[in-house]
Specification:
Shape: globular
Strand order of the largest sheet: 7-6-8-5-9
Largest sheet: 5 strands, mixed
Distance between the termini: 58 Å
CATH class of the largest domain: Alpha Beta
Helix content: 25-40%
CATH superfamily of the largest domain: Periplasmic binding protein-like II
Oligomer: single chain
Strand content: 15-25%
Number of helices: 13
Number of strands: 10
Structural class: alpha/beta
Number of domains: 2
Radius of gyration: 22 Å
CATH topology of the largest domain: D-Maltodextrin-Binding Protein, domain 2
CATH architecture of the largest domain: 3-Layer(aba) Sandwich
Order of helices and strands: HEHEHEHEEEHEHEHEHEHHHHH
């Protein structure tokens, strides 16, 4: 009898422990490169709007220098959602062997007509007036293989200039690009939002071309996750996407613009009066339903293949699972 009681007690403890484990919110580490341009830091600032945060999930915003380093983190289980670019999707699937990687939502699009496109600046006194003048020059990017890096090289290739043969590419953090140009450490620098609007950068330089030269409109970055993880945590992820939609729509609502600017000002540590462009047509395009443009993404991936970033094209539709965002959107109708 005593043994039976011991067994039952042990079983009860095990059941309670399992129940407690199930009740623990799902940890979602979501990555970003540029605060404010990417959603993640802004989302954390308005998590009070979320209904499921701390219940079915918790999110951490994790910063990386560029999208290529996110692939290693994803493969090693150090990241649940990777905010990849079109240029690194194929690298993750083809080179890193993450065959179950899936596109799950939009982050932002570049070059949508009427909206901002990433720019490439040269000094006003450099004598560089056209793309062909970059032959033999030093070009600065945030990370080799990152989205802006591939877009830059695609634009130059259209003008007959090839990487390593006709120019040199060096890496530098995006916030340091104005200094790189000012100190003549690079002849051309990469400028994304918000750094493209730097007073220093625009005083010493001008945009020679923008990203549409190489890509046209692009599904520049988007959220990805592994299908095995999605299947295991689907209910919590639909909760998560519902909250993400709710928060992003709040930011995109013009009536909340002033408060959004104040939040961005705190994050970037710049005066609010420099951020009037935020979530307007002077900014990137962000889909209010968080739906990615898979047609544009396929074209962008094919450009990366043409440049030899990865060997064969990736079937974007095959590597997408939009059911999470679709189910979440239904809840908010």
């Amino acid at each position: 009898m005593r043994n039976l009681k011991t067994v039952l007690a042990a079983l009860a403890i095990a059941v309670a422990a399992a129940a407690a484990a199930r009740a623990e919110p799902l940890l979602i580490r979501n990555s970003y490169v540029v605060p404010v341009a990417n959603w993640e830091p802004m989302i954390v600032e308005k998590k009070d709007l979320a209904k499921h945060w701390g219940k079915s999930y918790v999110m951490e915003a994790v910063r990386y220098q560029g999208t290529p380093t996110m692939i290693t983190a994803l493969a090693n289980g150090e990241l649940e959602i990777a905010n990849l670019a079109y240029s690194t999707l194929g690298i993750a699937i083809e080179n890193a062997g993450i065959s179950d990687l899936r596109v799950i939502s939009d982050d932002f699009r570049d070059g949508v007509p009427g909206y901002f496109s990433n720019q490439f600046f040269v000094r006003k006194d450099s004598g560089i007036k056209k793309v062909e003048d970059l032959k033999g020059k030093v070009l600065a990017t945030n990370a080799i293989g990152a989205g802006v890096d591939i877009a830059m090289k695609a634009g130059l290739k259209k003008h007959g200039l090839l990487d390593k043969r006709d120019f040199t590419v060096i890496e530098a953090p995006l916030p340091t690009m104005p200094s790189m140009l000012n100190d003549k450490k690079a002849d051309l620098v990469t400028a994304v939002i918000p750094f493209a609007l730097s007073p220093q950068l625009n005083e010493i330089g001008f945009p020679l071309f923008d990203q549409t030269l190489g890509l046209g409109p692009s599904q520049f970055v988007f959220w990805t996750a592994r299908q095995s993880w999605i299947d295991k945590n689907r209910a919590a992820l639909i909760d998560y996407m519902e909250d993400m939609l709710r928060i992003e729509r709040w930011y995109l609502d013009p009536k909340n613009h002033d408060e959004a600017v104040q939040i961005a000002s705190r994050l970037l540590k710049v005066p609010a009066d420099r951020l009037g462009w935020l979530y307007t047509k002077k900014d990137y395009y962000r889909d209010p339903d968080m739906m990615p443009d898979l047609v544009a993404l396929q074209k962008n991936v094919d450009v990366a293949v043409d440049l030899g970033i990865f060997k064969s094209s990736v079937d974007v539709k095959k590597h997408s699972d939009l059911s999470l965002i679709q189910e979440a959107a239904k809840r908010l109708k």
